[in-house]
């Protein structure tokens, strides 16, 4: 009987705490440490980017050593240098701001909003 009581109390506390936590959720288009965001929600490009820059050419970066795997987290083999540049991070710093997130009021949890495309 006490096991059922404990289970009911645990479920009740869980539901109550989720309702209380949901009341403090704040949706934002950017996450800043202090102040307000520099860029609006639908900005076209960063201030330090030239949108009319030429989009052609070739860049080659040399690296000493050998590799046999492009997966840098593989348990066997030698990963190629700079394989971290092959994948996009979940949250990309702008160099001077912006990223949509949902966070609780005292920022105990942060949920990034992943948009398709």
Automatic annotation (TrEMBL):
Positions of the UniProt region annotated as Disordered: 92-117
Lineage top rank: taxon: Bacteria
Organism: Vibrio maritimus
Keyword annotations: Signal
Keyword flag Signal: yes
Signal peptide (UniProt feature, chain positions): 1-22
The protein, known as: ABC transporter periplasmic substrate-binding protein
